[in-house]
Amino acid sequence: MAIILRIISADGRRVIEKTLPALPANIKLPVGARVEVEDKDSGVVKSLPRYINEMSDEAYEEKADDTDGPVGPPEVTIESVPDWGMAEAWLETVGQDVEAEPARSTRYYDSPYDDEGTSVMGFDGNTLLIGGLVGGAIGAGALLLTDSDGPSDTVPPVAPSGLALAAEDDTGAEDDDSITTQTEDLTITGTAEAGARVELFEGEESLGTTTADETGNFSFDLDLDEGVHRFTAVATDAAGNVSAPSAVFAMFVDLTPPAAATNLDLASADDTGASQTDNITSRTTGLTISGSAGANASVELFDGETSLGTVTAGADGRFTLDVSLAPGVHQVTAVVTDVAGNEGEASAPLTITVDTTAPAVPPLPDLAAEDDTGSSNTDNITLQTEDLTIQGTVEPGAFVQVFDNGTAVGNGVAGLNGAYSIDIDLDVGDHTITVRASDEAGNISAFSQPLLIQVFPSAASMMAPQSATVVDTSFSADLIDSDPGLDGAAAFGSFG
C-alpha cells in the first residue's frame, strides 16, 4: 500500500509531497505546518493523527490473539526545522528504505483534544503535544510529537479580538448594537491566531471551544437567556501556549415588549375645528400627530391597517410625524418597537375627521320684521340703529358671520335646524349686509347675496330748539311783543 505524504503550510499556500510505501517513523516539519496522508489507491485523505489512529486499530485487531498481548500503536517523532528548505531536503532523502510498517511503541498517547476540541491532556514542558499541527488533529489519537532539535515555542498567541454578535442575529436598531430578541443559535464571531483553539467564557464558565480557520476567523453558536451577557475568549496555539483573555464583549437579550404609545394627538395648528382639541380639520397634508413612547423607540403610525410612516422617539420618548389623510373619518393608532426589536401592542385609536367640503352659500339674509320700521316690514328701511336682528338659514351648527360693506359686525351659531339670528348695530345711512358660514372643520362658504338696509334718523333726532329775536314796537295793534310767552318745539312731520 502506497501513501502520499503531504506537508502543508498553516495558510495552505505552500505544499510539498512525496509518494512513499509507508509512513516514516520520523518526520521533519517546518514550525506551524501540518501533515496529511493520502491513500494512493483510494484517494482518501486523512490528517496524520487520524491516519495513525486507524492504523493502530488495525494493529490491535491483528494482534488480538497474540500471547504477548497487543502491540502499542505507532509512535511518530516530529522534528521541528526552522525553514522549508530543510523539510524539502529531508523529504527528498526519504524513499525505499522506509519499512513496510512504521515503528511501533508499547506506549499510547492520546491527542490533546477530544472530538469537541476540549483539552484532555496536559503539557509537561518537555514533550510537545500538538493536536494536528495547526488544525486537522482534533479528535485524532496516537500522536506523540517531540521537539528534538528545533527551539521550543513558548510565545503565547495574541489575545482574540473583535468579538461580536453576527449581524443576522442582531435585531436591534443597528446591526452592530449587540441587542437581540433571539435566544437560540446566536452566533458570536471573532478573530485569533490562525489554527488556534479558541475557548469562549461567560464570566468563569466555559461555553465551549472551536478552532480558528486559516484566516483566523472563528465563531460560536449559543443559546442564551434574557438579560445582559458578557463574554471573553482565550486562544491556545499549536504549542499549547495560552493567550490573555480578549476584551469583554457585552450583549443584551431583550424579550420584553414595550408599552403601548400614549397621548396621540393632532397638533393644534392643524386642528381647524371649532376648538383646537376636537381633532377635526379641513387639511389633508402635513398633519402633525404627536405622542409618547419609550426612549429611542421606533414608532409606526397606522390608519386602520395602512401604515402612515415610521419615526424614532427622542430620548424623552416624545415623537411627532407628519402624515396625509384623505377626507373622511380616520382611526389612527401607533405601534412601538423597542431598540431590541420587540413590538408592542397598538395604542388606543385617535379619531381624526378630515372635512374639506365647504358649506353651501347662505341664502339672502333678512332684517327682522320688528326692526323694519319702513312703510312695510319687508322694505328693509328702519329708524333703529341698535340691536338690529339679521336672520336666515345655513348648514345646521355652522358658525355664521355678518358683514357690513365687507367689515365683520357680528357672528353667531346656527341651531340644529340651521336657523340663525344675529343682532348688530348700524349707523344712519345705506348698508350692504352679507353673511357667510363656516362648518365645524373650518371650511368657509362663499358670501351670500347682499341685503340692502337703509337706516334713517329717528324722530327724536330730528327735533331741534326754535328761537328768534323779537323787536317790541310798543304798539298793541301790531301784535309784536318782546315777551310773547311762547316757546317750544314740534316733532318732524307733526301738524296742529
UniProtKB/TrEMBL annotation:
Residues 161-254, 262-356, 363-448 form the Bacterial Ig-like domain. It comes from the Bacteria. NCBIfam families: Ca_tandemer (NF033510). Gene3D superfamilies: Immunoglobulins. It holds the Pfam family Big_13. This is Bacterial Ig-like domain-containing protein.
